[in-house]
Amino acid sequence: MVVSRRFLPCRCQSRKLDFLARPGSARLVALKTLATSTDPRFATRERQPGLDLLRALAIVLVVFYHAGIFGFVLPHKIQRFGWIGVDLFFVLSGYLIAGPLLASFARGRSPSLRRFFWRRALRILPAYLVILVAYWSAPAMREYLEMPSLWKFLSFTQNIGLRGGTAFSHAWSLCVEGQFYLVLPFLLLAVMRWKRVAMMLPCVVIAGGFILRAAVAVAVARDGVVPFRDFQQLIYYPTWTRLDPLTLGVSLAAIEQFRPGWWSWLTKSATWLWAPALASIILGLSLGEGDLTLALCMWQFPLIAFGMAALLVCAISARLPFNRVAFPGTAFVASTAYSVYLSHKLTIHFVAKGCAARALPLDSGLAISAVLATIGVVGALLFFLVERPFLQLRHRSAPARRKTPGLSLIRGRSRP
Fold first, then answer.
1. pLDDT at position 211
2. Which of these, 23, 134, 306, 331, has the minimum number of CB atoms within 10 Å of its CB?
3. Residue 47 clears pLDDT 60, i.e. is over it
4. Is 193 within 8 Å of 103 (Cβ atoms)?
5. pTM for this structure?
6. What average pLDDT does the chain have?
7. Per-residue pLDDT for 30 more than 70?
8. Rounded to an integer, what distance in angstroms lies between the CA atom of residue 410 and that of residue 408?
9. Which one-letter DSSP state was computed for residue 232?
10. Is 227 left (phi over 0), alpha (psi -120 to 50) or beta?
């Protein structure tokens, strides 16, 4: 029997399409292997597209905000709202870092503090120290000439007493998280022995921050307005006034582990929860459109934190498409977000000098495209050359715990 050659390509194409469509195909396995080889953090767990989307959104907001400060201004100056990307990072950090610790308690075991701090060190320090050395050894590269003392960066206390207009000032959020990582496991070990205290503590922290910001604002206000420098040093940068998003992130992780009924209700409510979440964020941002008033100091951070926490629930809920649909490029942007965050101000300063030398307006489409592309390239290089090798070392020396199959069902709960 002679088979027509014209038939063979169609048959092969049909088999190829069938192969690509099969859920358990080697093609999908290959794609998962590629994702794992790019980011070792996902060697023992699945990527969650919703969380990747939030990480990508957070870093894009921050990059646009800081680029705008140096002249890369978007139409209507909409980049001025990008500072809330840091609050989104805080909510994500609270949820993702507390989750494994609380999961250990849920299994009836105390987490290994040595393992926790080793994994945190390999995650945070290598890329951070590389950028710190670049800032310290090459003043000409800095976005500002003045820089806080080196010991403040090494001790993760640079955010205390910080003011804007200094080099590597964006490390303040890393200092807040570093202090958070240091205290969190010991705090959980203590409160897990007293369940009522554990339930009350988030309310106490958020109420305490509310009262503290109000007291500071009243003390420094002049004619009802808080001076910008005082707002920066005493309210915006200090750890004790910025715990709202971290606390809410930890609270969501605790609800997921210990209150499955509440967690199920939250995730099922995502179909309408996104609307009040956006409303809360918009209301918080609207408070900042005028003077630095007492109301702004008291309400802005909690409103934005609650909105971001609600968006996190929406991002991981099965009721919405965000955790099922992976938007192209978001996984890579999410993986490189930390490296981009560390290096982006150096890159912005470098591109701004290049544009000035060529008389290219910074608010032009070409200049904005150039700065965004360069930020992405530099961040990717830092990720692949520094961050990723240490993530691989972390995976070999202290791999993340695999989730026990069926654990949720054994504990009488289901994960949406």
1. 96
2. 23
3. yes
4. no
5. 0.88
6. 88
7. no
8. 5
9. I
10. beta
Q: Are 61 and 82 in contact (CB under 8 A)?
A: yes
Q: What's the CA gap between 121 and 275, in Å, rounded?
A: 38
- Give the separation between CA 290 and CA 223, rounded to whole angstroms: 14
Residue 339 scores a pLDDT above 60: yes
Distance (Å, rounded) from C-alpha 266 to C-alpha 317?
Answer: 8
What is the Cα Rg of the chain in Å? 23
Residue 349's CB is within 10 A of a number of other CB atoms, namely 18
Q: Rounded distance, CA 309 to CA 273, Å?
A: 10
- Segment 396-401 long-range contacts (CB within 8 Å, at least 24 positions apart): 397/118, 397/122, 398/115, 398/118, 398/119, 398/122, 399/43, 399/44, 400/41, 400/43, 400/44, 400/45, 400/100, 400/119, 401/44, 401/100, 401/103
DSSP letter string over 178-220?
Answer: HHHHHHHHHHHHHHTT-HHHHHHHHHHHHHHHHHHHHHHHHHH
Residues 6+ apart with CB under 8 A from 10: none
Per the listing, tokens 């800095």 go with: 142
Instruction: List the single range of 70-84, 360-374, 394-408 with lowest mean pLDDT.
Output: 394-408
Query: Over 50: is that where the pLDDT of 15 sits?
Result: no
The amino acid present at 191, given as its one-letter code, is V
Q: What is the pLDDT of residue 81?
A: 97
Is 70 exceeded by the pLDDT of residue 58? yes
Task: State pLDDT tens for residues 275-321.
Answer: 999 999 999 999 999 999 999 999 999 999 999 999 999 999 999 99
Q: Which two tokens stand for residue 50?
A: 């919703």
What gap in Å lies between CA 39 and CA 217, rounded to an integer? 43
CA angle, 387 then 393 then 398, to 5°: 120
Cβ atoms of 93 and 180 closer than 8 Å = yes
Using alpha carbons, select from 169, 143, 146 the residue that is nearest to residue 158: 169
Distances in Å between the alpha carbon of 162 and those of 176, 215, 342, 366?
12, 19, 17, 34
